[in-house]
Amino acid sequence: MGNDRVYNFSAGPSMLPLEVLERAGAEITNYQGSGMSVMEMSHRSKVFQKIFDDTQAKFRQLFCVPEGYKILFLQGGASSQFSAAPLNLIGRTGKADYAVTGNFSNIAYKEAKKYGAIRLAASSEDRNHTYIPTQDQLQLDPEASYFYYCANNTIYGTEWQYVPDTGSVPIVCDMSSDILSRPVDVSKYGVIFAGAQKNMAPAGLTVVIIREDLAGHELPYTPLMMNYKTMIDKDSMYNTPPCWCIYMLGLVLDWLEAQGGVPGMEAIKHKKAQMLYDVLDRSKLFTCAAEAGSRSDMNVTFRSVSEELNDKFVQEAAAAGFTNLKGHRNVGGMRASIYNAMPTEGIEKLCDFIQDFDKKN
């Protein structure tokens, strides 16, 4: 890669497209003749308002967000939505269903218990979150105010390959680690949210897509900054939004469009993931952590036959320019996070490295 850049397999913050970084670098001191950086300008200025409006419009187009849904650019990370979702939605019946398939959905489940009667509709803990429950394994309450799940489990390397059928119960989904990597029928969801630092922009921005009729029913003690209706009414600008991150999202969306949009990216990312899984499945040393049929295209988790070899692999990989491959402590082994910005070349070279390591050890 140019400029001695490494192949960064971090789970987040993750790598950004090189073209985006170069464009941002060229504009960093003087954005389009304004005489200032986007980091310096008022969020109330006409210059930034155009950046905001254009980014919001591009996101609506590329993610196919239909009318009747609002796109919010917020702060607080996806974790803030673990509280915001129940605070804003649970008031209808006081009940909600949660599917726990990994670390972050488990945190969200525990947080929601503060605000109502939260039911565990499904869990994959019995096999250390190596699989995604099937539709017939979901125990759904038709009186739930909403059903919650996390689309991709970054730590464990699993991904939902279907949208749960919940009848008339709205779905709330954390798409932090696979948003913009595959087409989504937004109309099947009540709320979609995602932290930006994996597929969209630098850390600091949280995108929330909400069906408008679900807002305005918040619990009376909902904090001001977590009130969806407040943020809708102020178009995400009740206070200063994460201006630089919104600008960077706009650049990433331009790059994504050049890749063929979300459908084009889906083909690219699936090809990358399959290439890596094929090499691991043929290996004598390595095995994949996630079960076939539940494997993530974003986070590939794998391990060798011993902890000593795991450590050796991570160290030698880093020396060869493949960084952040050490797995999360809950899973161990290795994890290759191959978000949208990871070039196919990076996967090809990692596959060569794995095969070479396999032969030598």
Automatic annotation (TrEMBL):
It comes from Intestinimonas massiliensis (ex Afouda et al. 2020). Pyridoxal 5'-phosphate binds at A78, S79, F104, T154, D174, Q197, N239, T240. Residues 6-350 form the Aminotransferase class V domain. Coiled coil: none annotated. PANTHER family: PHOSPHOSERINE AMINOTRANSFERASE. One of its GO terms (molecular function) is O-phospho-L-serine:2-oxoglutarate aminotransferase activity. The gene is serC. L-glutamate binds at R44. Homodimer. Its EC number is 2.6.1.52. NCBIfam families: PRK05355.1, serC_1. The modification N6-(pyridoxal phosphate)lysine is found at K198. It catalyses: 4-(phosphooxy)-L-threonine + 2-oxoglutarate = (R)-3-hydroxy-2-oxo-4-phosphooxybutanoate + L-glutamate; O-phospho-L-serine + 2-oxoglutarate = 3-phosphooxypyruvate + L-glutamate. This is Phosphoserine aminotransferase.
